[in-house]
Amino acid sequence: MNDTLAIDALVPVAAVALIAPVLLGLLPRLPVPQVVLLLAGGIIIGPDVLGLSSPGGVRVLADVGLGFVFLLAGYEVDLRVFREDAGRRAVVGWFVSLGLALGVVGALAAAGLVHAFVPAALALTTTALGTLLPILRERGLLNGRLGHYLIAAGGVGELFPVLAIAIFLGTQSRFVALLSLAAVGVLALVLVIARRAVRDGGRLATVIALGQNETAQITLRGTILLLLALISITDEFHLDAVLGAFLAGVVLKHWAGPTAPALESKLDSIGYGFFIPLFFVYSGMALDVRSIAEAPLRLLLFFVLMFLVRGLPALAVYRGVLPLRQRVQTVLITTTALPVLVALTEIGLRNGTMLKENAAALVGAGVLTVLALPALAVAINRPDTTPAGPGVSRARPRRAGRPATARGRSDRG
User: Fold this and answer.
1) How far apart are CA 233 and CA 242, in angstroms?
2) How many of the other CB atoms lie within 10 Å of CB of 220?
3) DSSP string, 274-318
4) Could you report the per-residue pLDDT of 216-249, keeping only the tens digit for each?
5) Range among 136-145, 166-175, 235-244, 374-383 rated most confident
6) pLDDT tens digits, 324-380
7) Which of 34, 144, 150, 268 could share a disulfide with 413, CB 3.0–4.6 Å?
8) Cα separation of 41 and 54, whole Å?
């Protein structure tokens, strides 16, 4: 890589990563997700404002943070939700959004406003429910049937764009994409064989069992090695490494078995404790604020498109299972988009498929959706005592800082 890690550039980034959750702790009613504060802090310490740090000085670690975003997303996927009505409707809603996005952004590309319409279209299909779950839980929006459908929609809105990135953008380099998928397939086979060997006993099983905690941390070190190896596939952090990180997370969850919660807790600590917030601060530093100031209408355009493309289909998709007020709330919540949106625009910038001004406008529009739409959803809320239905699992409380998935996990960052 051309970028080198600079300690003097890392100190302000670490300071922002610490200040963001402290500020939220001091102001618990502040309706702002942590990721917004991290992006804002990155802008402030970046070259466009104070100039205390630069993106190039921390890019190597930001790459690891981006890898952690998708590794943990894959690790927490629960495919059982797709057997339920909420999951099936969420999938239908997402594909409707994808079709609308491809059509609308394709028209923008024909008009010369978008360089490559596929990345921008995928950006319009994401949902950032994970950043909002603490606020929604506190205000009672996760109770009853509404909460179950919101969690499913949010999980699909984070999972499917990741898979779509691989399908639609990976075709730019079919050989590398196939090589990446083959490597992950080999990895899955190796891990399955290794799991059987460990399960059968022997000295290796004893070493791994005794070395999972305290100073050895064998499973955690192995996961970090896996992630770094995937990132190093290319000199730049291309799409296929992201896909590999996501699939590796799925494989790791299966491999960990009964020890999955313990490994997950460790990954939370190292990922959300350092690497992931660093990635979002880096994204704030790299954000082209000047292009937003010069063309604010572009930001407003993407904001409106997010509402029309991602949110509005919920009025039809959830008809018959949710009343009108709750469908409007679903529209507002599913329109919110930020963490996956930030990662997707970063990928688009790095592989040259997205214009810098469009990436900045999309992130800015995502910030606007997070700040405005959930507040409206809360304002029209009334207590929901409707049972979620048979076979429905409630969202359980969770540490702040985790993206939502099909299991309904919460996040402030």
Assistant:
1) 10
2) 18
3) IIHHHHHHHHHHH--HHHHHH-HHHHHHHHHHHIIIIITTHHHHT
4) 577 777 777 766 766 665 444 444 556 667 667 7
5) 374-383
6) 999 999 999 999 887 778 778 877 777 677 888 888 889 889 888 887 888 788 888
7) 34
8) 12
Which residue pairs from 322-329 have beta carbons closer than 8 angstroms and sit at least 24 positions apart in sequence? Answer: 322/145, 322/146, 322/149, 325/380, 325/382, 326/145, 326/146, 326/384, 328/377, 328/380, 329/141, 329/146, 329/150, 329/377, 329/380, 329/381
For residue 368, the 8-state DSSP code is H
Contact 339, 263 (CB under 8 A): no
What distance in Å separates the CA atoms of residue 15 and residue 45, rounded to the nearest whole number? 10
Among 314, 340, 305, which residue's Cα sits nearest to residue 157? 340
Determine the residue type at 245. Answer: A
CB 169 within 8 A of CB 242: no
φ, ψ of residue 322 in degrees (nearest 5): -130, 140
The tokens of 312 are what?
């509005």
Which residues, listed in sequence order, are joined to residue 322 by a DSSP beta bridge?
Answer: 319
pLDDT tens per residue across span 27-54: 877 767 788 889 889 999 988 888 888 8
Whole-angstrom distance, CA of residue 278 vs CA of residue 401: 13
Return the residue matching tokens 């969202």.
395
Judging by beta carbons within 10 Å of its beta carbon (0-12, 13-18, 19+), is residue 196 exposed, middle or buried?
exposed
Under 8 Å between Cβ of 163 and 82:
no
- Residues 393 and 406: their CA atoms lie apart, in Å, by 11
pLDDT at 167 over 70: no
Q: Radius of gyration over alpha carbons of the chain, in Å?
A: 21
Cβ 119 vs Cβ 343: under 8 Å: no
pTM of the model: 0.70
CA dist 67 and 61 (Å) reads 10
Neighbouring C-alpha atoms within 13 Å toward the C-beta of 173: 13
Contact 136, 374 (CB under 8 A): yes
- CA 128 vs CA 14, 114, 198, 286, 404: distances in Å: 24, 23, 38, 21, 8
Instruction: Return the amino acid letter for 297.
Output: L
Q: Is 132:376 a contact under the CB 8 Å cutoff?
A: no
Annotate 26-90 with DSSP letters as a single string. Answer: HSTT----HHHHHHHHHHHHSTTTT-S--HHHHHHHHHHHHHHHHHHHHHT--GGGGGSHHHHHH
CA distances for 402 relative to 9, 118, 167, angstroms: 26, 27, 25
* Number of Cβ atoms within 10 Å of the Cβ of 74: 22
